[in-house]
């Protein structure tokens, strides 16, 4: 669709100029000046109308994409300490992500259909792994194929279309332009970078082994992030799955290029002609690859049956110290050098200068690019560079949380696998006969307040560290039983728990049934409450044996 609008815009100058040129020709049938003026006016009005229609259509498409991206969902994937997926597990997860393209279909714009893999540091400085996508793909994203991974639903902030630069520096030290951290009253500095493939898309990145973990270099790069200085690092990979028809066209294009090495213009014309012929046939890639197309070496990395994605890579670093944002950014960019092989990652932009004399770099931190970068970063809009076409094998290092082979300790892990609650466990809503147990994630990853029927509970024993919530859980369950009409005895030696629970027992439904028995001492003359189990008070000699 974007290509169609580009074609319309490219035809507008020709439409605007063709009429006046024809009318002003000496041999034109319209020889009178009034006729020439009329033709020029008609052509001008037609050009204005077409321009207005094109602008309105583009604005409508952007508005539809903005509304589609407003309801995105996110899930945090927390691996265990022993998480060690195989290559087949990663391949299945890639197939699962490719399925999101079929789930999120028309009328959602293409730019809103991407799946985001976010590797970012939290308030504690640890590196976390998260996947985000359109709300239609929630059923696919919330159940990844990995076994030893805990799925936690997270709330995503509403995307903000930044109308002006938010006060961040344009990639160099200096005074900020107005952005201030509200918690500390200090300016916030931001460094941005967008990565693209440096060579032809058919050239593959280096096949990085899974042990050690490819994400170990990234974890080492963010090890120096100091959350107390307001530093946050986020690396976002937006994946837009390519349809089988698009992959088939790529194979034909590269096979034809290798079979007929001619001028670039000739190859371009042949490619366009073949694409028009395929669209006219209606097959859109359904024609099988023949022999001459046909060798995997001719089509490069697209000769395999792996899923292919158009990838957008965005890196953003924040800090209240201007020099540290650039240091962290360069460390992250060095982590991507692990994949350098026949192809490699480079920062998108233009260098001002040549050779050893470089006076500047116009990249994502440029004044005219940072607004678009921030919009894509905040909203999840996927506008990948046409060169960024990667297979699942090349993205294997990013299509999984950090494994056990990631040696750094600044990675969010769950410690052990916590299974979801049983499906038949009731959700506590205050109903009688059920006592609450606490919030727990279900099979869909959503946390709910679950309970257990009193008929199924005979005995409960809790142990744990101090301040871990044992007394709080007992207070909540005692109050729940009281409000349900049952009787409960809560023994509190220190009376601190009772003081917290007393305000919640003032409701007329329970306050008349509350008995407070206080055996604590107040004053030096108070008698100590005691009980002598061997006391014979009120008994005879015959009761001695019974008492003993």
Number of helical elements: 13
Radius of gyration: 34 Å
Q: What's the overall average pLDDT, rounded?
A: 78
Number of strands: 15
Q: What's the SSE pattern?
A: HHEHEEHEEEEHEHHHEHEEEHEEEHHH
Work out the helicity level. 25-40%
Q: Roughly how many Å apart are the termini?
A: 94 Å
What is the SS-derived class? Answer: alpha+beta
> Low-confidence spans: pLDDT under 50, at least 5 residues?
1-10, 160-178, 281-297
Proportion in β-strands: 15-25%
Largest sheet: 9 strands, antiparallel
Query: What general form does the structure show?
Result: elongated
Helix and strand topology:
Blueprint: H1 2-23, H2 33-69, E1 73-79, H3 87-103, E2 115-121, E3 127-133, H4 138-141, E4 149-154, E5 180-181, E6 186-187, E7 189-197, H5 216-221, E8 232-241, H6 244-259, H7 264-281, H8 296-299, E9 308-319, H9 322-335, E10 345-347, E11 350-354, E12 357-362, H10 367-379, E13 389-391, E14 434-441, E15 447-453, H11 470-483, H12 496-501, H13 544-547
Antiparallel strand pairs: 1-3, 1-4, 2-3, 2-8, 5-6, 7-9, 7-10, 8-9, 9-13, 11-12, 14-15
